[in-house]
Amino acid sequence: MTSQYYENDRPKSLQSIWDGLFVIFRTKAGFTMNTKSNKTTILTNEAGTTAFDHQAAPRLIIAGTGSGAGKTTVTLGLMKALAQRGLRVQGFKCGPDYIDPTYHTAVTGRASRNLDAWMTSPDYVRETFARASAGHDISIIEGVMGLYDGKDPLSNTGSTAEIAMVTQTPVILVVDVRSMARSAAAIVLGFQQLEPELHIAGVIVNRCGSAGHYTIVKKAIEQMCGIPVVGWLKRDEDMSIPERHLGLVPAIERGELEPLFQRAADVLLEGTDLDLLLELAASAPPLQLQTHRTAIENDTEQPSQATPQQKHNFTDTCQPVIAVARDAAFNFYYPDNLELLEAAGARLQYFSPLAGEGIPAEADSVYLGGGFPEEFAAVIAGNENFLNGLREAVRTGMPLFAECGGYMVLGETLTDREGVTYTMAGIIPAQVQMQKKRAALGYREASAVQDSFLLKQGEVLRGHEFHYSTMTYREEGEIPYAYETKGLRGLKQEGYASGSVVAGYTHIHLGSYPAAAQRWVHHCNAYRQQRTL
């Protein structure tokens, strides 16, 4: 097929490629224009609602019939192939996962974003998508599990299908066609009919035995389903994405998976019509987008979700500082969380415990995210500057928030899979033990058991839990739990909240309750004022 988008293998101007895709995001009457810059017009009405007029990036969702169908391979190969053509690619991941966005970021050179309409809201997802897509040539969204798999087996909640409908994005369905022919058409037809509002725009078939096998399934699917099969991937045992073992993220950061990404692109390009995929991406309709002020004026009410837009009016000299641990041991952070803290007025300062760094002297709070501290337990245990800094922060009442891996480091000891035990910060009276079997996985609604710098009692944040370790508290005394969490298997109390510490296994998303970010920064500012008296 002759490309209408490229001349001499280089992209034409964006105006000619994506002509006609400008969209005005006006969802309410009464907007007046107050700012215009390049391709963006910001309009505001009396209620403080804003709409945006800018180019909506062409977009696709890569979904699978189930886990293991090959959607990650297709996603990474497509991102790499498009980047090699000179396009600016923005990646997204459906759901709460941290690993796949790390792949995307490594391939595209741009921070990938999570889109989760259960942890946040449909409006939040749309605006996050629009903001992150702005200025890029194409957005590629990787699905989660099977297309219709999510939080609830009786609805689309938390599924790739929900994100596709919320963002009005065409779906490319990846089907594993091993040992089947016309039956592949029945699978695709069933996926089409389950949700009529969903737009499955095309199919990529994976693990074909031969070109002849591909021709058979292509004819069957196109005859019965009326959509194009845009490509195929042959069976390739060497083309498997590594298991989500510990140390995977450091390997990505060192560039060790670059040959795998290139191989994915090469395999995809051998049998896929990239130009047709671009046409399908360009067929995405304009998004209807609306945002609201994010300033939380009434702290007592659970506000609607909103994305970061407004900065608190702190001067540079009095701006509270949140120290964020960020290296191979601590690297699981939702970009939205960091941006919401900045929007609330904080300045973020990153530091690396693995590099021997301690908590920055100007810090007014500490944020320890998830990651793989067990892989670097010896290094962490040897960084007394870091561990003593945590102890001193707690002694002085500095707000300290830790989740999952960060939570583990606050315990007294950490025992790795080999049975070696290391001394940690000792802030939480508990021992952490790694195990081979997964300890927890799933969405969580985390309700505060008590007041803290993050939440008032009874307020709720949504998030996700995934870990292979257990935290065993000493028997004496009552455990000051941070949250009562609700998941698929019911209610449980988890985490730790005492004094200025809030910690737990749950990875929370501040977009589910932006007031928590505002309150956190408020307490940081109060701490800063107190220590500068």
Automatic annotation (TrEMBL):
<dbReference type="InterPro" id="IPR029062">
    <property type="entry name" value="Class_I_gatase-like"/>
</dbReference>
<feature type="domain" description="CobB/CobQ-like glutamine amidotransferase">
    <location>
        <begin position="322"/>
        <end position="512"/>
    </location>
</feature>
<keyword id="KW-0460">Magnesium</keyword>
<comment type="similarity">
    <text>Belongs to the CobB/CbiA family.</text>
</comment>
<keyword id="KW-0067">ATP-binding</keyword>
<comment type="pathway">
    <text>Cofactor biosynthesis; adenosylcobalamin biosynthesis; cob(II)yrinate a,c-diamide from sirohydrochlorin (anaerobic route): step 10/10.</text>
</comment>
<keyword id="KW-0315">Glutamine amidotransferase</keyword>
<feature type="site" description="Increases nucleophilicity of active site Cys">
    <location>
        <position position="507"/>
    </location>
</feature>
<keyword id="KW-0547">Nucleotide-binding</keyword>
<dbReference type="InterPro" id="IPR002586">
    <property type="entry name" value="CobQ/CobB/MinD/ParA_Nub-bd_dom"/>
</dbReference>
<protein>
    <recommendedName>
        <fullName>Cobyrinate a,c-diamide synthase</fullName>
        <ecNumber>6.3.5.11</ecNumber>
    </recommendedName>
</protein>
<keyword id="KW-0436">Ligase</keyword>
<dbReference type="InterPro" id="IPR027417">
    <property type="entry name" value="P-loop_NTPase"/>
</dbReference>
<dbReference type="GO" id="GO:0009236">
    <property type="term" value="P:cobalamin biosynthetic process"/>
</dbReference>
<comment type="function">
    <text>Catalyzes the ATP-dependent amidation of the two carboxylate groups at positions a and c of cobyrinate, using either L-glutamine or ammonia as the nitrogen source.</text>
</comment>
<dbReference type="InterPro" id="IPR011698">
    <property type="entry name" value="GATase_3"/>
</dbReference>
<feature type="domain" description="CobQ/CobB/MinD/ParA nucleotide binding">
    <location>
        <begin position="60"/>
        <end position="246"/>
    </location>
</feature>
<feature type="active site" description="Nucleophile">
    <location>
        <position position="404"/>
    </location>
</feature>
<dbReference type="Pfam" id="PF01656">
    <property type="entry name" value="CbiA"/>
</dbReference>
<dbReference type="GO" id="GO:0005524">
    <property type="term" value="F:ATP binding"/>
</dbReference>
<dbReference type="GO" id="GO:0042242">
    <property type="term" value="F:cobyrinic acid a,c-diamide synthase activity"/>
</dbReference>
<dbReference type="Pfam" id="PF07685">
    <property type="entry name" value="GATase_3"/>
</dbReference>
<keyword id="KW-0169">Cobalamin biosynthesis</keyword>
<dbReference type="InterPro" id="IPR004484">
    <property type="entry name" value="CbiA/CobB_synth"/>
</dbReference>
